[in-house]
Design goal:
Shape: globular
Number of domains: 2
Radius of gyration: 24 Å
CATH class of the largest domain: Alpha Beta
Structural class: alpha/beta
CATH architecture of the largest domain: 3-Layer(aba) Sandwich
Order of helices and strands: EHEHEHEHEHHEHEHEHEHEHEHEEHHH
Largest sheet: 7 strands, parallel
Number of helices: 15
CATH topology of the largest domain: Rossmann fold
Distance between the termini: 60 Å
Strand content: 15-25%
CATH superfamily of the largest domain: Glycogen Phosphorylase B
Length: 392
C-alpha cells in the first residue's frame, strides 16, 4: 500500500486589518499645552497602529506641523471658524477624501458641539469631545448671546459625542454640566507627558550665558502662550516688584502668541524690559527648567490643567500659582504655593523670592514621582487608546 503524504491545508491569506485612523481637531499647531501633549500621544502610540491626522482651524502655520508630519500625520487647514458653513464644507471634504476615520477627537471646547454634530451625520463611529479648560469665570462676563451659543454647543455635545472626556473635574463641569459624573460617557483622562527629558540637567553657567543672562541671576520662569487668560500684564507687575526687591532677579518667559508684541511694549514702557527675556517658543523647555529656573510662576485667570505646572514639578521647581486654578495637578505638595489674584503684585513677588531656589525636594525624587503618576504619557495614552479601539 502506497504511503500517503500529508499535505498541509493551504490557508487563505487574511487581509490585514486597517489601523483605526484618528482625526484630531485643534485650533492651531503652535507649541502649546494641548499640542505638546498630542505629540507625546503620537510618539507613544506609533504611526502604524493609530495614524493621526490634524484638522487645524486656521490657515496660519504652527511650530508643531513638521513634527506631526515626521510622525506620519497629515495637517489640513480649515480656516474661517467664525463661518460655520465653510467649516462644515471643509470638514466633510476631509472626512470623505482623507478617511475613512474611525475617530474624530475635538479639542476646541464649545465649538466641539458643532463638529460632533457634523461627524455624527457623516457616520464617524467614535466621536470624542475633549474639555481642556475651565472658562466659567471668564464666560460669566460675556454678553447674553454667548450663553445661548454655549448652551446650544453643550446640547449638541451631549447628543452627538460618543465620549466626553476632560483633563480635570472643573473642566468637565464647565463643558459637560454639574452632573457630569452621573453620565457613563464622561470621564477624566489626564494629559500625560513624557517626563524623560527632565532627567537631563545642564551646565547652569553655560546655559545662562547662551541666554544672555548673568551668571548669578535668580531666574523666575514662566511658560505659557501669550493669550489673555495667561494674565501676562499682571505677570509684568509681579516681575517689577520682584526686581525692586532683588537686583539679581530676571524673568524668563517661554512661549509665543498674539499678545507677545503688546506685552513686550508694556515691559518697555514700565522700564523693566532689560531684565526680562522673551525667549519665544522653544523645544528645550525641560533643560531650561532643570538648569536655569529657580522658581516657576503662573498667574493665569483660568486653566483646565496646566501642563507647564506638571513639567515644573518634574524639574523640582517651587511653583507659585493663582489659587483659583485646579489643584488636581498638584502631585508634589511641598513644591506648590498659592496666591490669590486679588492679592497685590507685592505679595506675589514676596512669595516668589521667598521660595525661589529653596530645595524642598530633590529633583531626582520629583522626577521619579511624576513619572510614576497618572500624568505620565503611558498612563494617559492607554486610557485614550481604549476609547479609540471601542473598548470604553
Amino acid at each position: 500500500m502506497a504511503r500517503r503524504h500529508f499535505r498541509p491545508k493551504q490557508l487563505r491569506a487574511q487581509p490585514r486589518a486597517e489601523p483605526r485612523r484618528v482625526l484630531h481637531v485643534v485650533a492651531s499647531l503652535v507649541r502649546a499645552g494641548i499640542e505638546v501633549w498630542l505629540l507625546n500621544v503620537m510618539r507613544a502610540t506609533g504611526r502604524a497602529h493609530r495614524p493621526m491626522d490634524f484638522l487645524v482651524l486656521t490657515d496660519q502655520p504652527g511650530e508643531c506641523e513638521d513634527e506631526v508630519r515626521a510622525l506620519g500625520g497629515r495637517v489640513m487647514p480649515c480656516p474661517h471658524p467664525r463661518r460655520p458653513w465653510l467649516v462644515a464644507r471643509r470638514f466633510r471634504e476631509v472626512l470623505r477624501t482623507q478617511g475613512p476615520y474611525a475617530v474624530v477627537h475635538s479639542h476646541v471646547h464649545h465649538y466641539s458641539g458643532f463638529l460632533m454634530r457634523l461627524a455624527a451625520r457623516e457616520g464617524v463611529p467614535v466621536r470624542v469631545a475633549h474639555s481642556h479648560n475651565d472658562t466659567r469665570a471668564f464666560e460669566a462676563r460675556r454678553p447674553w448671546p454667548r450663553e445661548f451659543y454655549r448652551s446650544l454647543m453643550r446640547n449638541w455635545i451631549r447628543s452627538h459625542a460618543t465620549h466626553r472626556i476632560a483633563v480635570s473635574r472643573e473642566s468637565a463641569e464647565d463643558l459637560f454640566g454639574a452632573h457630569w459624573e452621573a453620565d457613563k460617557d464622561c470621564q477624566i483622562i489626564r494629559c500625560g507627558l513624557d517626563f524623560a527629558p527632565f532627567a537631563v540637567v545642564g551646565d547652569r553657567r553655560k546655559v545662562l550665558a547662551e541666554l544672555g543672562l548673568p551668571a548669578d541671576a535668580l531666574v523666575i520662569g514662566h511658560v505659557g502662550r501669550f493669550h489673555p487668560r495667561k494674565n501676562h500684564a499682571f505677570l509684568l507687575e509681579i516681575a517689577a516688584e520682584a526686581f525692586a526687591r532683588e537686583p539679581l532677579a530676571r524673568l524668563l518667559c517661554l512661549g509665543d502668541g498674539p499678545l507677545m508684541h503688546e506685552i513686550r511694549g508694556k515691559a518697555i514702557a514700565m522700564g523693566i524690559a532689560d531684565r526680562i527675556l522673551f525667549a519665544g517658543s522653544r523645544t528645550d523647555v525641560p533643560l531650561l527648567m532643570t538648569t536655569v529656573m529657580d522658581v516657576f510662576v503662573l498667574p493665569s485667570h483660568h486653566e483646565g490643567l496646566s501642563l507647564a505646572t506638571l513639567e515644573a514639578q518634574a524639574a523640582g521647581l517651587p511653583c507659585v500659582l493663582a489659587d483659583g486654578l485646579t489643584r488636581e495637578g498638584d502631585v508634589l505638595a511641598p513644591l506648590m504655593h498659592r496666591v490669590s489674584l486679588e492679592a497685590p503684585a507685592e505679595k506675589w513677588a514676596e512669595c516668589l523670592l521667598q521660595v525661589a531656589g529653596r530645595a524642598t525636594l530633590r529633583q531626582e525624587s520629583a522626577l521619579e514621582a511624576m513619572s510614576g503618576s497618572e500624568f505620565s504619557v503611558e498612563h494617559a495614552t492607554a486610557q485614550l487608546c481604549r476609547i479609540y479601539d471601542g473598548q470604553a
